[in-house]
Amino acid sequence: MNKFVARGVVAALIASFATSPAFAAATGGGLSNVENLLNGLVDLLTGGIARAIAIIALIFCGFLIAFGRGSTMIWSVLIGIVLVFSSAWIVDQIIA
Fold first, then answer.
1. CA distance 35 to 89
2. Domain residue spans of the chain
3. Whose CA is closest to 16, among 24, 28, 4?
4. Do 85 and 46 form a contact (C-beta atoms < 8 A)?
5. Which whole number is the average pLDDT over 52-67?
6. Residue 24 contacts residue 33 (beta carbons within 8 Å)
7. Rounded distance between C-alpha atoms, residue 29 and residue 60, angstroms
């Protein structure tokens, strides 16, 4: 099974390296590709999926409190959610 996984990973890497010049030529190349990739990653991590995960985490924390199992983990979850969703604003305030 490991040989098949390794071969699949190697094939995927070869395919991605073989097609990357085509993508660079189609989009103009340069650092704009990196910037677009990173902006897409930020949108993914702070978008709708992350919001749904944060809501589920808070619901889970609410159940823990309701059943008397609340601990310092709840504060860690809350601080983590605040940092994830306000990180872009914090960086904008530091840069500006």
1. 18
2. 1-30, 31-96
3. 24
4. yes
5. 88
6. yes
7. 45
More confident residue, 10 or 81: 81
Q: What is the residue type of 33?
A: N
| CA distances for 77 relative to 68, 85, 91, angstroms | 17, 12, 21
**Residue that is written with structure tokens 């709840």 in the block:** 74
Statement: residue 6 has pLDDT above 70: no
DSSP assignments along 40-75, one per residue = HHHHHHHSHHHHHHHHHHHHHHHHHHHTT---HHHH
Please tell me what DSSP assigns to residue 31.
T
Overall pTM surpassing 0.90 (yes/no): no
DSSP state of 28: T
Banded pLDDT at 94 (limits 50, 70, 90): very high
pLDDT band at 21 (very low <50, low <70, confident <90, very high): low
